[in-house]
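Technical annex, item 7. During the second reporting period the consortium partners agreed on a shared format for inverse folding records so that results from different sites could be compared directly. Each record opens with the tokenized structure and is followed by the designed sequence. A conforming record, contributed by the partner at site C, is shown below for reference.
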């Protein structure tokens, strides 16, 4: 069956983007629950910010938290009028599915710290594909409340 595949990656589509986004969101929350943490709420606005960053990386062939205009994840959220008191970003690239992207993120200390950060309350996940159908994953975590 593998030999019959014409390409390594499935053709990117709007449905696949959404599927990968929600799957990565669910996997992130499952990991949090397994560690006794609260479930993150889906944030549609920050999902748009995350997806725009994934699109930018895919279209312009780079992989970095800082975009080609020099903006950090926090700059991009502020530009999109997303208020936050604490925020973080995870990136993954090239994994065949969100399952493999999540596995890679949880095996990286800094990314795992974001996933298990108890101060985060919301998450938006954005995915897009480059011309070779390789997926770019962006997770934007945030809370917009002062915690005491």
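Designed sequence (site C submission):
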């Amino acid at each position: 069956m593998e030999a019959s595949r014409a390409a390594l990656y499935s053709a990117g589509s709007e449905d696949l983007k959404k599927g990968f986004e929600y799957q990565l969101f669910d996997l992130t929350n499952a990991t949090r629950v397994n560690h006794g943490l609260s479930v993150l709420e889906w944030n549609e606005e920050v999902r748009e910010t995350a997806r725009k960053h994934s699109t930018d990386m895919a279209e312009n062939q780079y992989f970095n938290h800082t975009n080609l205009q020099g903006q950090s994840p926090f700059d991009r959220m502020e530009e999109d009028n997303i208020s936050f008191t604490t925020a973080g970003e995870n990136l993954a690239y090239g994994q065949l599915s969100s399952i493999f992207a999540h596995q890679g993120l949880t095996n990286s200390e800094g990314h795992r710290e974001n996933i298990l950060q108890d101060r985060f309350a919301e998450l938006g996940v954005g995915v897009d594909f480059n011309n070779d159908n390789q997926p770019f994953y962006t997770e934007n975590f945030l809370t917009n409340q002062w915690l005491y």
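The beta strands are 41-42, 86-93, 122-129, 135-143. The chain is about 40% helix and 20% strand. All partners now use this format for quarterly exchanges.
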